[in-house]
Specification:
The chain is α+β, with helices and mostly antiparallel strands. The chain has eight helices and 19 strands. The protein folds into four domains: about 120 residues, Immunoglobulins (Immunoglobulin-like); about 120 residues, Immunoglobulin-like; about 30 residues; about 50 residues, no CATH class. One of its GO terms (molecular function) is calcium ion binding.
Length: about 350
Amino acid sequence: MRSNVPVGIILIGFYWFVLTQSIADPKDCSSFIQHLPKNITIRESSPLNISIIEIRLNATAAPSFINDIYYYIHPDCLSNHFKSVQEGNKWSLFLQKAIDVEYIYLVENKFVLKDFQIEIKCGSYDSIVNGTVIDEDDNGPIFANTKSTNCTISGYSANSYREYTGQLETSPGGIEAADGDVTGNNVTYSFLYGEPFGFKDYFIINPQHGHVNKTREITEEDPHNFMMIIQATENSTLGRTKIAVLEVGVYENIPVVSSQVEANQAVLLVLQVLSGIIIMVFTFAFAYIVHHRIKKHVVSPKIPESVNTSKFDSMEAVTEDSFILENTIVLTESNQINGGTIKDSKE
């Protein structure tokens, strides 16, 4: 029996059937997830653009479900360090940017990166790949508490006096160095060089803690200015080193540290205001007392009446000074009337 269905329709239907069978099948995703590694290890010096995960897919299924594969990096700061690439039926995850543990600690998130995770999903399937980062010995010691200068060599300074022996107090802080690697090694200290010659006769350094001690008194004939180069060495196979400069000045007396004797400006201002108020109050009180004493000793003499004399309309006050000096009353107008004194005219 001959079919009436057009041939073209049969061909199209068969082609559709093949495509639908190659679309992301759960079995394909399941197989892909199962082939993922459980753990990977990356070093700070791992070469770039080399695959760290590589999975080969079914050649027929790959083109159809490759776009259903997603991955997420935890912590997120590592996301730009990886990229995925598909080449034919191969899916790969590449390291495209080196992981610097110290940079992440100091600049980005202030945490020590040792482990990370890659979450990979395909369809409804997912898996976690655990990653480990190895912090390599790629940084030397770093000095702390140093002077802020444009010089690449760290700097310290200290003052002492002739008779003093003991640990020096360095500025801007104590001599301290640490390995530049996050998982750092211990550091030891030593003198690498110094001036003048024979400086070790006066100073020693503690190899474990970096403290510099003055060991003897210095006479007037001895040097009074010293420069020492301190070397910090990490206890590792590579034995990386770093140097710093210490300058020491020796004085006749105990050097005065300005930060210890400098008065608080606010306190000085308050004291000055209080002093001014006290002086003002004292001045007004003194003036008040003097004014009342003078007023108390003012004398107003009585002038006797006389037919032979003119009337006195007023009499000037006699001050305390004239009273003390003469013990008499001095009148400001003439004391003679008609050729005689006031006393004569009264008689």
